Give the backbone structure.
Amino acid sequence: MAHPTVRRATPADTDGIWEVFRTCFGASPAERDAWVAQLDPDRAKVIDGPHGEVAAMTHVRPFDQWFGGRPVRLGGYSPVGVLPHHRNRGWGRAVCEAQLPDLRDRGEVIAGLFPASLAFYRSLGFECAGSYVHRRFPVGDLASIRPSRPVAVRRGTPDDVSGVHRCHAAAVPGRDGAVSRSDRWWSHLLPPDLDGVELYVVDDPAEPAQLLGYAAYRHRRARPPFDYAIAVIEVLAEDPDVLRALWQVVASSGTQAPELDVVGPAEDDLFLLADQASPDVVRSEIRWMLRLVDLPGAVAARGWPASARGRVELAVHDRQAPWNDGRWVLEVEDGSARATRGGDGRIEVTVGGLSSWWAGYATPARLARTGSLRTTDPTALRTLDELLTAAAPVLPDFY
Ligand SMILES: CC(C)(COP(=O)(O)OP(=O)(O)OC[C@H]1O[C@@H](n2cnc3c(N)ncnc32)[C@H](O)[C@@H]1OP(=O)(O)O)[C@@H](O)C(=O)NCCC(=O)NCCS
């Protein structure tokens, strides 16, 4: 099959890119202006169809994603689309692959996405790095959450929105996988006028205008005879009693609102708070994926456990990014790490497998069991395992 020509988009492609998005994701014309406003053609790649139409496109959004207490520059693929009659001829893969040199040039050392197909993106070097689960809890499952000390929860107002942003920004460095949110991102999640949003906050008694936590949700339609159900936007606090007090408020609507929609990871903190965990609450469950774009850049960018110390010699297989392919020595010490060329390559690993491990998602043993890592040296495998004892990353922001 002839290799298609992929080019960087220009503002003149905006209509064509929107048309691919509309066709691929069922968007309505009413969504066009808001969608186009967040498109940066300079970060999009396209393939032209036979009539000069945009036939395939990818767009990559910039984020900082936190790993080991440090922000790592992430290029988030969003969206990827090929017009239906141009599919299955390698164009989807080609537009995705063509982003990699640009990502590297911009210093976006990792790439991520919420995949429609694992196989498609695995073939491009991505691998699973975290879970994203939509659950619908009967409110009764959460109704008995209580703080162990009195906590003053008050109704939030638009004046609290910037405090919510600051509270989130203070929390993300401690949460592997979380992304920093831009004002634009926040405005989708929590409109500045709080239109349609119920917000509850807890003030920090030590610091005026700072919040210890917040809970935001929307009312959504419920099945009759109930009046409404609750769609949680976010409940966030570092102090366990503040967290419990906020959940108590959210779950207190149970007499009228029987169900509560929450998005979280497979192993949600809620299970450490709830009295009940109904077995059938999962509505949808997907895995987001990650790819190291610039291997030494990504190794240097994340934080590593302070107690980890060691050296492993890797042979990395990366078909799309030749600058990653080949032998590397990975050394970790004092909370930092570096990757340099060389070594005997005694651990063979695909770039996807390495990406999943780097993120803290899959252990070396899991990767070995499933075929993306191979070695005949159990000591090297143990050393690799000891370098990163991270928890599975959590990313609640679907991009
Ligand atoms: C997913 C999509 C982008 C794939 O585009 P495409 O041009 O048909 O894909 P390609 O022809 O480049 O396929 C590359 C490889 O992935 C495989 N693949 C493609 N779509 C796949 C799918 N849905 N499931 C499993 N494998 C898939 C192909 O078989 C091919 O593998 P091969 O080389 O071993 O034969 C396209 O189907 C699409 O636009 N879908 C609607 C929008 C969407 O879901 N976008 C992705 C959101 S994350």
Summary: The chain has three domains: 6-108, 144-274, 296-387. Residues 6-108 form a domain with the Aminopeptidase fold (CATH 3.40.630.30).
